[in-house]
Amino acid sequence: MNGYAMLKIGESGWIEKERPVCGPMDAICKPLAVAICTSDVHTLWEGAIGERHNMILGHECCAEVVEVGSLVKDFKPGDRVLVPAITPDWNSLEAQAGYSMHSGGMLAGWKFSNFKDGVFAEFFHVNDADGNLALMPADMPAEDACMLSDMVPTGFHGVELADVQFGDSVLVIGIGPVGLMAVAGANMRGASRIIAVGTRQVCVDAARGYGATDFISYKDGSIEDQVLSMTGGKGVDKIIVAGGDCGTFDSAVKCLKPGGNIGNVNYLGEGDYVNIPRVEWGVGMGHKQITGGLMPGGRLRMEKLGSLVTAGKLDVHPLISHVFKGWEHLEEALFLMRDKPRDLIKPVVIIED
After folding, report:
1. CA-to-CA distance for 189 and 282, rounded, in angstroms?
2. Helix 38-45 and helix 330-339: axis angle, to 10°?
3. Residue 259 neighbours by CB under 8 Å, 6+ apart
4. Which side of the chain, N or C, has fewer Cβ within a 10 Å radius?
């Protein structure tokens, strides 16, 4: 089979590999559509998870099942399925402890394009198919289904980590596709005020549609100065970090009320340490909690998110700014995500006829 791979840090291209082998609990799928993630950029060009040689990239797609193992009960060849970016081993001790995304070790539920070949290929392997795949709603467009792999569950997990409650004031730092879903999730949870940090107009417009009430740009001054000015010096109840870098936490802590929560779902692709301001953190005693978490994967999560879309509670289509058709456009879409032109939110490549 052919796949688009990271050859080494900074270099990528099409390679030929053996088709993956299906174990008794597994499935082999072929993509119907794939989406490009900023994580692919961090992995390929920044070497954020270290050197990888000839590893097929990609972890966002929807797919058709082509083969299932002998112990798979609920899926069969021909099924169109949602595929989460995180595919835990559900019989692991970590999963039993409630942290399935770390099954087998920290971040080890993230398998695609981390330590096994990803989905930018003619065929890809899914472990524990009954626990990780979900049937794709019949009327859901393939490009929309791709958004359920990572963007929606990651943004929503930021809301969960921050523990957004009815009436909370919420700051969302970064309104790319994950941040946009954090805005949507905070709005669903009943946030009264949602301040979004972003500069690209296409993202600002989408964030307004998802429920953001106020906007600031880091180009207009520090985030903390603007947020404290907008809130009469009080700060906000909850913060979701969906963009920025290790230094972003300095601003986040300064914007947060005592007793508030910061939920980080941003992939920190470079840097050795996260900066926490000592005084604004209450000299260590300010009850300002910081939690960073990898999104939950698995079938139940996918089914619930799919239900939100089919019920009309969540429209993911505004996330998609660029649509391509055919594998020949994959590299173009990947480089587009790297370069981030001002009209970009999310590129999708449709593979099916």
Report:
1. 28
2. 90
3. 287, 288
4. C
Q: What are the start-end ranges of the H helices in the chain? A: 38-45, 93-96, 129-132, 142-147, 151-162, 177-188, 201-210, 223-230, 248-255, 299-310, 330-339
Residue 50: exposure state from Cβ atoms within 10 A (0-12, 13-18, ≥19)? exposed
Structure tokens at 230: 């907008």
DSSP 350: E
What is the distance between the alpha carbons of residues 291 and 288, in angstroms, rounded to a whole number?
10
Contacts made by residues 115-118, CB under 8 angstroms, sequence distance 24+: 116/55, 117/3, 117/5, 117/17, 117/20, 117/55, 117/56, 118/55, 118/56, 118/57, 118/58, 118/59
Position 353 scores a pLDDT of 57
Cβ atoms of 113 and 56 closer than 8 Å: yes
Task: Tell me the residue type at 294.
Answer: L
Q: What are the tens digits of pLDDT across the range 326-344?
A: 999 999 999 999 999 999 9
- DSSP H helical ranges for 123-247: 129-132, 142-147, 151-162, 177-188, 201-210, 223-230
- State the chain's mean pLDDT as an integer: 96
Identify the three-state secondary structure at position 152: helix
Which of these, 237, 113, 95, 89, lies nearest to 171 by C-alpha position? 237
